[in-house]
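HOLO CASE FILE
Compound: nickel (II) ion
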Amino acid sequence: MLLIIENVLSKDEVQQFRSPMEQANWESGVKTAGSLARTAKQNLQLDDASEVAIGLRNHILRKLGNHPLFISAALPSKIYPPKFNCYTNGGSYGTHIDSAIMPVPGTSLTVRGDLSATLFLSEPDEYVGGQLEIEGIQGGEGIKLAAGDMVLYSSGFEHRVKPVTQGARFASFFWIESYVRDEKQRNILFELDKTIQQLTPKLPEGDKDLLKLTGLYHNLLRSWATT
Ligand code: NI
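Model generated. Tokens follow.
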């Protein structure tokens, strides 16, 4: 899956994020890279325990919790607390694959990375380079979205962030464990849900076939979901 979700944050919200982020303390991203990714990763990360990171990630989690398209596509059971990074001065992240199981700091919980997400917090014209390239599911020039937009993609693919040669690229990134682990099943449910949403305004309220289709969606989800 590769899905772009626009306006997860409004431009006003992005602005509210950016000022405290720009004034915060940033540390080397190498600290949190897995052993394989360590040499590939050249960026800065916001201290997860800082007040600014806590406030911003709670805001993102609230927005995602009320976002029908995100919920329909990801069927999230757990979301890793969003982290924040900044690529600048030639910073990049070479080709790597995200870890499968991630412990949530300060808890005994883990999140299985079924889906990866990057929420862009800089406008594309604020920096040069910085495209997210995902092997196998995305061709062309790489992903570089408007501030407030988010890309959601299957964690099983190799990906990289091209060097940022001018300006700074701020983003939030995190992983999602889905109730439906199998990607094919999850995609079928997503397509079915989209079809139901498209049919709903076209049919009279209480239409029996629509009711039946909705029931099929929930029964498929019931048999495929794990909790
Ligand atoms: Ni990654």
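CASE NOTES: The first strand starts at residue 2 and ends at 5. The two ends are 21 Å apart (CA to CA).
CLOSED: yes
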